[in-house]
Specification:
The protein is an alpha/beta fold. The chain is 44% helix and 14% strand.
């Protein structure tokens, strides 16, 4: 259908255009994608076997949808991707505030215009990108905002009395006719405003200042909400919940592999940073493991959740920390070091809600603890378990490395080390090479030095070595020698 040639109602009828509701539109286009084996929600990871099938069943059932989940679980992203299931263009009566279907008008304006001009009624075309409306529910939202009100200026200009429905100024929902309308954080919407949605969802009529309008609004509603038991701000009133066809629970990534896909996709890393900073695969794993540790931490409010935005921000900060170090030291190429992880602390402290015990410890202390736990957890997957109690003179996987520290006394890694100095210091710790060769033989050349540092940090977390923060770096020493020196 060549829309540039269809400019009147008569032209539209000649083309055999059939009126279709938005729910039928979404359903038909989803059916095509399923038959063709094309993903309906491109760019959503980890929901393939859980959330997406439920959304697809809801669309096939022509339901309004409530996406229920903790923050940072891609609820709004899912809603926005539904635009891709709409037809590319739809016709509407030119000048209509509510996108009236030329073959099924519902507003007084469109009906009068078609009655007057018949087949010469002008029509325009609406692109699917313009058929998405979004409103964040806040306590200050009014009935006039979302449904409409009487407009005294319109009444004066048109010389109409307030008894004439043409004086109505339509709110966001009527203007979203034939579109997707998203209300984010639905529990935050005042109960009396939620009540105003009852008839729109069920019967299709609206009331504005005493006008009861039988306007069969054609809208696909998507609501998003945190689980109502998890918030003190409000809840979804039961009759409204009853009118929402499908309630779908979202969730956080189940494993590191899925979480890494999300972070790689969403983190804003520019070409300059990508060229300058190399990020070892293990560093990406640590970033993701931090969020898993946070969600299980006794210091963090599980009911509040730990958003995927934390890991995205942490990755951006990690690369920026390495970039800043490289710029300060005149490096043209660098790789992320474990010391760069100190740069992600602001991304963690701003994204987690601490319980009382966590507040007592302090946000920065908890952030450091999460980094340490992430390193310790990942270390256990690849290297032998470190026993807290060992028999005297009994050798284990780490004996040679620990003996080296006893003999040599340790070393310092400074931030202003260039790549050559950094590698030289770590290469002097010969037992690290033997340990990696046995337990991490597949480590790439690019990742080798990060792995060496990772082993040292893990031994520190397991109380086998001592790590001390210096003004511009860290020192690593034998733990017993360090204690004697302190005494």
């Amino acid at each position: 259908m060549k829309i540039d040639k269809i400019k009147t109602l008569g032209d539209l009828k000649k083309q055999g255009y059939q009126t279709k509701s938005i729910k039928d539109e979404l359903r038909d286009n989803l059916i095509l994608k399923i038959k063709e084996g094309v993903p309906a929600f491109e760019g959503i990871h980890g929901f393939e076997e859980t959330v997406i099938p439920e959304i697809e069943r809801a669309i096939l059932s022509k339901h309004n949808i409530n996406l229920l989940g903790l923050r940072g679980q891609a609820k709004t992203k899912l809603a926005r991707l539904m635009i891709q299931l709409l037809d590319e263009y739809i016709p509407f009566v030119a000048g209509s505030e509510i996108n009236d279907d030329p073959l099924a008008p519902i507003s007084r304006f469109a009906k009068d215009l078609i009655s007057e001009k018949g087949d010469t009624t002008p029509i325009e075309w609406l692109h699917r990108n313009e058929r998405f409306f979004e409103k964040l529910a806040t306590p200050d939202v009014t009935i006039a905002d979302i449904i409409g009100d009487v407009d005294p200026i319109k009444a004066a200009n048109l010389k109409l009395s307030y008894a004439d429905e043409r004086v109505i100024h339509f709110g966001m929902i009527p203007r979203a006719n034939r579109s997707i309308f998203v209300i984010n954080e639905l529990p935050d919407l005042q109960a009396r405003i939620q009540v105003a949605l009852f008839n729109i969802l069920q019967e299709g009529d609206i009331q504005i200042r005493g006008f009861k309008l039988r306007m069969n609004l054609d809208i696909q509603f998507i609501f998003t909400a945190n689980p109502e038991d998890y918030t003190n701000r409000g809840s979804i009133v039961t009759p409204l919940k009853d009118r929402i066809g499908s309630q779908i629970l979202t969730h956080y990534p189940k494993n590191i592999a899925v979480a890494k896909k999300i972070t790689d996709q969403e983190a804003k890393i520019n070409a300059v940073q990508s060229e300058l900073v190399y990020v070892p695969n293990l560093a990406k794993d640590i970033i993701e493991q931090i969020s898993f540790e946070a969600r299980a931490s006794e210091y963090i409010d599980a009911k509040s959740g730990v958003s995927a935005r934390m890991t995205i921000s942490a990755m951006e900060n990690l690369i920026s920390a390495a970039e800043r170090r490289a710029l300060k030291n005149g490096l043209t190429k660098t790789a992320v070091r474990l010391s760069d992880f100190m740069g992600i602390i602001p991304a963690i402290t701003g994204k987690v809600e601490l319980v009382y015990e966590g507040e007592q410890e302090g946000a920065e202390v908890i952030a450091n603890l999460l980094i340490e736990k992430a390193i310790s957890t990942l270390f256990k997957f690849q290297f032998p378990k470190i026993s807290k109690l060992e028999k005297q003179n009994e050798k284990n996987a780490y004996s040679d490395l620990l003996d080296w520290f006893i003999a040599e006394g340790g070393f310092e890694l400074y931030e202003d080390f260039d790549e050559k100095q950094y590698k030289k210091v770590l290469d002097e710790v010969k037992p690290l090479d033997a340990l990696m060769k046995k337990y991490a033989p597949d480590t790439s050349k690019e990742d080798a030095y990060f792995m060496k540092e990772f082993i040292l940090w893990a031994l520190v977390e397991n109380k086998k070595l001592n790590k001390e923060k210096l003004t511009e770096g860290f020192s690593f020493k034998d733990i017993l020698g360090h204690m004697i020196n302190k005494l």
